[in-house]
Design a protein that fits this description.
Oligomer: single chain
Number of strands: 12
Strand content: 15-25%
Protein name: Sugar ABC transporter substrate-binding protein
CATH superfamily of the largest domain: Response regulator
Largest sheet: 6 strands, parallel
Strand order of the largest sheet: 2-1-3-4-5-11
Family: Belongs to the bacterial solute-binding protein 2 family.
CATH topology of the largest domain: Rossmann fold
GO molecular function: carbohydrate binding
Number of domains: 2
Helix content: 40-55%
Keywords: Signal
Mean pLDDT: 90
Order of helices and strands: HEHEHEHEHEHEHEHEHEHEHEEHH
Subcellular location: Cell envelope
Length: 363
């Protein structure tokens, strides 16, 4: 009889531990870039840490510098090997990915960028036209564009000797949702500040080398312009590289801002070469893993929302040391992503995807 009860206790313990661990699931992330991209490497890194906590198996497939056709073709390999596909809509390929995922009955989640206004009007929200499209998350890109423009202008006024401010803007791929929204933020700032104007908006396709080449041409065309707004850190880094090769001093002779919190940008803010960078949205991939873990364990996030928007924070010379102290060089494996999950954290009533909550765990 004792052996019988021991057996029952053992079985109960095994099932209890399995329940606490949650069901294992497979996610494929179609990375829009390659394994040398600083921002997307950070996104992938945080997704991996989240999956270690959430009993998730992560497969990363690269589509090489936003090769939108390659990204769509990746779905052909996934029909039987994944439970969910996570992707960014770039160059308008979001609809093609959603269509193919729907045909193959692969549940999908889009993050970091939104569909175009026209596409949103035609296809609506997740789980409407596309039943297998579970949800979406994207950063407040317009606010990021506004805040970086404000930081750039504030510094510009210190060196303008009372003159009006003229800005040259480097945008990403013009059709990308992030590029559209960040430019809107810049333009919104300009509308609200009569001493500021935009001389030209030019696409550098998110790339440092293209931004550097175009900065060289633009500086020759507009030698008196000192303010260069960029929709992404890599492009701001290109501006800085181009300026230094001309013998200019970034932070004095020219000013620039970016978005993404790339490692190089962090160093350049610390060195006074870059005015500011908006970021923190590299956490979005990890937040999506939390939502999918809950969904897979029968706690559907649709009860709260199908669309989640994340906020970006601004790093400047005023707070860069605090960020480096709290985040860089820390053991990120210490972050407990179960705290953000409704399945693992039964006391959680509302999702709180706040970067400050991450920093608190690293103190």
């Amino acid at each position: 009889m004792r052996n019988y009860f021991n057996f029952i206790f053992l079985v109960f313990s095994v099932f209890s531990q399995a329940a606490l661990a949650g069901q294992s699931f497979n996610v494929t992330f179609i990375n829009p870039s390659n394994d040398t991209d600083s921002f997307w490497n950070k996104v992938t890194e945080m997704m991996k840490y989240a999956c270690e906590d959430l009993n998730c198996n992560l497969n990363v497939m690269y589509s090489s510098h936003r090769n939108h056709l390659l990204a769509v073709s990746r779905l052909d390999e996934l029909a039987t090997s994944t439970d969910y596909v996570v992707f960014q809509s770039t160059k308008g390929n979001g609809i093609e990915i959603l269509k193919k995922a729907e045909r193959k009955k692969i549940k999908s989640f889009m993050f970091n960028a939104v569909l175009s206004k026209q596409q949103q009007g035609q296809y609506g929200e997740p789980r409407s036209y596309f039943k297998y499209w579970l949800g979406q998350m994207f950063p407040n890109d317009k606010k990021a564009g506004f805040n970086t423009a404000m930081a750039l202008a504030d510094e510009g006024r210190k060196i303008s000797a009372g003159n009006n401010l003229t800005i040259v803007a480097f945008n990403g791929i013009p059709s990308d949702g992030a590029a559209v929204e960040r430019i809107k933020g810049l333009e919104d700032y300009i509308r609200k500040n009569s001493d500021s104007s935009i001389q030209q908006i030019i696409s550098a396709r998110w790339l440092k080398d293209i931004a550097e080449q175009k900065f060289n041409l633009l500086h020759k065309r507009y030698p008196d312009i000192q303010l260069f707004w960029a929709a992404g850190d890599a492009m701001a880094e290109g501006v800085i590289a181009g300026a230094e090769k001309m013998g200019l001093t970034p932070g004095k002779d020219i000013l620039t801002t970016g978005v993404d919190w790339n490692n190089t940008a962090i160093k350049e803010i610390k060195q006074g070469k870059m005015v500011a960078s908006a970021g923190g949205h590299f956490m979005e991939g990890a937040w999506v893993m939390v939502l999918l873990a809950d969904y897979h364990n029968k706690i559907d996030f649709k009860k709260e929302a199908l669309t989640f928007k994340s906020e970006m924070s601004l790093l400047t010379s005023k707070n860069i040391d605090l960020y480096i102290k709290k985040f860089q060089g820390k053991d990120l494996a210490k972050i407990d992503f179960k705290r953000f999950s409704k399945f693992y954290n039964k006391n959680l009533e509302k999702y709180d995807f706040n970067f400050d909550k991450v920093l608190e765990q690293l103190e």
